[in-house]
Structures are given as C-alpha cells and as structure tokens.
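Many introductory courses stop at the sequence. We go one step further.
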Amino acid sequence: MAEPARMQDENVLTPSEALRLLEQRAQSAQNELASRTDAGEEVLHYLAENGATATRRAVAANPAASPKSNRLLADDDEDDVRLELARKIGRLFPGLLLAEKKHLRDLTIETLELLARDEEPRVRAMLAEEIKHLDCVPKHVVKDLAHDAEEIVATPIIEYSPLLSDADLIEIASTAHANAMLGAVARRKGLSGDVSAAVVATRDTKAVTILLANVDATIRKKTLDTIISQAAEIAEWHGPLVLRAELSPRVIRRIAAFVSSALVDVLASKHKLDDATRTHLARTLKERQRQDSKSEQEPANAARDVDAARRAGKLDDSFVAAAAEACQRETVACALSVLAKVDENIVRRILDSGSAKAVTALAWRAGLSMRIAFKLQSAVMRLKGHDLLPARGGVDFPLTDDEMRWHLGYFGVV
C-alpha cells in the first residue's frame, strides 16, 4: 500500500518549483499583454518600466504604446529594445505628431532626437531607413543623420530625404568622407544641375558613373563637357555616357572619338542624328573596327618584340621608354612582366590602378631607372599633377626598398 502514496508525493510541487512556474506564467502573460494593442496605455507603460527584455522589446514594437512609454524606452539599456522602437517610431511619427496635447508631441520629437543620436549604429540606421521619405521630421534630425559617420546611417537619408536642399546636397558632396555617401547623392531622383556639377567636381569615378546612369539627373552642357574631357581614360563612364538623352551632335562626335566600336554603334542607333553626324559615325565605326582588329594582334606582337629585344640584350630602359612613348601599352606590360618576373595580368592591374607608387615599385623591381618609372606614370598611366610621383633629387627613387616591397605586396607580388 506504500507505493501509491510515494507516487502521489512525487507529483507535489515544492515551493521553489511553484515559484518558478508562477514566474514563467507571469512572464508569458506579460509578453502577451506587451504585444496586444488593446492592453491599454497604462498597462503597456508598466511593462515598459518593469518588464523583462523580451517584454520591453514587445512594447517598443507595439503601435499602441503611448508617447510617454516610447520616450522611456528610448533610454533602454538594451540595443534590441531601442532598435524595435526606431523601427516603429518612423512608421508612426506622422500620426504621433497629431496628438492633441503639446507635451505628447514634444515627447515624440524628443524620442526621435534621442534615437538619431543613439550610440548603436544599428539603431540610427533603422531610424534613417524608416524616416527617409518623410517630410514632417525635424530638419536638424535629418541633417544630423545625413552627416553621420556610418554609411549605413547616412546613405538612405542622403539618397531619399525630401528635406535636403540643393545647398545641403552640395555640402555633403564636397565633404563626403565615404564613396557610398557621394554615390547616394548621385542616385537621387530629380537631381539638379548644380548638384550634378558638385558631384563631377569631386572627380570620384564611381560617383560620376552613378550620376551618368541616373536618368533623372540634370547634367548641364558645361558639366557634361567636363565629364567628356576626362572620359577617354575612364572606361566605366563610356556605357552610361552614350545612353544619356541630352547629347548634341557635337558631343556625340566627341564621344565617338574614344568609345569602343560597339558603343559607337549604340550612339548611331539610339540618337536622332543629322546626315553629317551619321556619316561621321559610320566613318568612325569603320576605323574603330579596323583598330579593334589590330589590337587583337598586339599581345602576340608585343611578346615577339620583347623576346627579340631580350635575346639581343636590348630589353632595357631605352626599349621600355620607346614603347611607352609610342603608346604601346601591351609591349610595356610584357616587358615589365619579363624584367620584374611578375605575371602579366598583375602588371596590367598595376598599370590600371592609377597608383604612381605601385608602378614606381614595379619599375624598381624590373631594374629600370626612376626616369622610366616617371615615364610610365605620365605616358602609359596618363597621371597628371599631384597624382604623379617625381624622383627624389631628380634621379633617385622617392620610396625606400621596404615601401616599394609593400606596394608590390598589395598586388600579391612577393
């Protein structure tokens, strides 16, 4: 008869087990209430003050929470709670501003300002994403987010906010510390001619590429001339440039002088041309196709010439200088590859990099003089002004051996 009694005792809760069960059920009830829009503002505020993290997070996401509760949660210690609040506040902000009592409207604005200054970038980024299209947000909040140091925060505001004026955008373009922010300016719908000019003035290749592809951007004649004057050396611009709608016959002829034969064909088919321009493009296309055919033979010819010079003991400064002056890029690349014992594809990457230090280091490794390194910068890479790296004392390499090894190491040369 003792067995049934023992089984009954095993089902009896101990005090600690009862408390644990009570806590679990209380927490479950709190979480459920925190998510309900009909729980009442006072209940939700109590949970915002006293609930566990999951409960407070649910209140932060609850659209029925009062401005007072939202303001309280803006100071919450948990990042995820503030993240949920930022996600919600942007969506509800226009409606929250309609509160009849001024102090409630002030609390809503204060909550927004606190989230915009939150120490956690994820919170600021969420807020920026949610308010990027709003025109009822305080402008100082928008400007602060647009100048945020974190790209994920600034770029949505820069690209979309209707509260940023042309003056604001020009300031952002001129002071942008990240390419993504400048690109966000270039992507904006309805971009004005003044802002487009500011983007081009930065000489940022990627941003100008984005600008050219932005069909809603106004690009004035003077700005377009500036782009075209640099475009021959920047292949990324060629495709979006030929597709611009505002090209005049004069501009079309200028572009045709440096783009590929395929893009010359696009110019001819996309734009309405007068007879003279059409004839000019047909002649240009024929010449470009001839050049393309010739260029296909250049790598083989370059390898043959370099090998002949090597066997004759003439693969030296004079040979590379002559090839550079004759714009024989393939011959230069092949010669540098042989002399420096570096893969030819890596040599081409260095020549395409725009880095004067890298090509100087490559010339040094190839056993060439600094005079040749400078000629490679100017004649082959087409660098100008401050982008050039001159010799030290007129003849010496301006970098130490370790510095040159470092620059080569960046390209995988050891």
